[in-house]
Amino acid sequence: MNNKLHLRVSRIVTLGAIIFALIASAISYSHTQSVEQAAMKKALEQLFSTVQRSAEIAAYLESRDLAWEVVESLSRNDIISGSILTSKGGMTVASDEQSDYDEVFRFPLYGPFTPTEQVGEVRIQLNESLLNTRVQKSAFEQMLILVIQILVIAILILIMVLRVLTYPIQSIAANLHRIVPGDDNNLDCPKGHRNNEIGNLVDDINKLLEATRATIKQEQYLRNRVESLEKHFRLIFEQASAGIFLLNGSFRLNSVNQAFKDIAGIALEERRSGKQNIYFPDLFYEPAVVRNILQEVLAAGKQTACDLRLGNLINGEERWVHCLFSTARSDSGNNLIEGLIVDVTERTFQMERILFEAQHDALTQLFNRRAGEQLLNIMLANARNNQGQLAVLLIDLDDFKLINDTHGHEAGDKVLVEIARRMQLTVRKEDILVRMGGDEFIITLLIKDGNRDEIDQVVNKLQKQFTAEIEVGSDRSVTIGASIGVALFPQDGGDIETLIAHADIDMYQIKKNRKTAYSYLLSTQSTE
Amino acid sequence: MRYLIVVILQILLISAQAQAQADIVVVVNPNSKLTELTQQQIIDIYMGRTQTLADGSKLVPYDQPMDSAIRVAFYQSLTGKSLASINAYWARLLFTGRASPPRQLSDNMRLVDILEKDLNAIGYMDSIDLNDRVSVVFKITIDE
To answer: Would you call A101 an interface residue with chain B, using a CB distance cutoff of 8 Å?
Structure first.
């Protein structure tokens, strides 16, 4: 606030007043000079008129005495520094030695009785220094008056400016300075200025303040809302139980939430070494598969969901996650992928267990009857389509009821489990082994061109397995035989029921024939 | 008072008669070298400007008696100025010594006698009074 308003105004007013006074003085000086000169000339003319007659006579008569009298009396006036009277006849009378004058007034002399005849001339030299002194004095006085007037006016203007403009504006400025944007204070209008420009200024400032206040309140309200929304979103993002992630176009992780870190945490730690952005597919067991999925998502732009297995973890755990990918567009227009992952390891295992339990026999872990029939139907359908051949082997343990009765159900169960294990070792991976119930099993094999030998080989192999002893308790072991009936597809039937029925008939035939052979075998074993 | 008015009326009557009747002539001795003068020359002689002739002989002008009608008429017609201003002119020059006014004739002096005696004398008179003893060098016609 060094440059105070009233100081500035006073500087300008003073400067203007001085400049104006100087200009006015210069004009006044030249004006005064011409006025004074005119006045002196007039005085000179009047002076001359008082001696004109004598001068005329002196020139007429060539009278030196009279001429001297004229010149001398003229010179007695202080506005005249010198004069010369000359006559036609050659007489020259001068007031002093100086005969040449620069500023000279010439008055012709005519004959007193013959006005048409010029008889001489009077030359008068004005007193220049007196003229100048007078001019200067007069001009100085006028200038002084002018300067005083201007000063008085300037002071008046200054006082008025201070009273009418500067003080109100200063008070407004000081009040405005104290006002903090957004508070409820308004400016007060200085007294007596309500209806002029200053009043308008105050009104306008107040309007502006009110508008600012409203804007600030609105801004505050909006900011609070945005903040609370942001807080909510952050909460959702951070507290979500699902892992949330954002990938850039090259499938590297841009940002993840805590849940993601928890779910994929160990894998993340593993791959964090040195890498700024983790390559997302690297987190998974089969990175290539994940990469293909991501490329598809990016190309098609549609949402994709799938279950994926996380990559090998340090503790060797198997973890499964359900992933949901969708494309997103960043502010800069790049295509991104956002996604969710949910840990489904538990669920996957549970599902598998349930499925397994539904399809398998609880005791022997073989396919149960229902699942077996389904699988058989599928095999049949495949064989039908591919002109393939199947062999359905129906296996019934001989005298299993006897083992149950003799050694108890526990021993029976052990026998069943052991038999199932041995059969599983015998059959190929693509063959189906089903426990139909009790001590009855079905094995379905894919065979080539109805070769009976192939089937016989399998049957023999199985029979060999059965003959080995089965431990059922502490130092108790049993052996068990089995009757195996065979039915061929498509020779012996087109559907399961027919085939099983055929195999059943075949089996009973064998069982009947075998009764003796089996008894024989038992007796030979016991004899050994 | 009555007497005064009568006297003034008589004077006016006489002068009127004289102006109406006669011209004024400037005269010199018949033997003078001057034969003819211009009005300017006569003014210069009578107003004191010309005091000598070309040969150096001094000119002596004579005036008619003060307040005489012919003197009034002479200066009036010669210079166009009243006798009073002519008197004021001479009064101004009283102490200069450069020039002196013409000599004045007294009532009992006769101009012709003076002219007869002085070759350098010059005077003026009514043309009625002209005779052989003077010669006219200039004639002022009074046409009122």
So the answer is: no
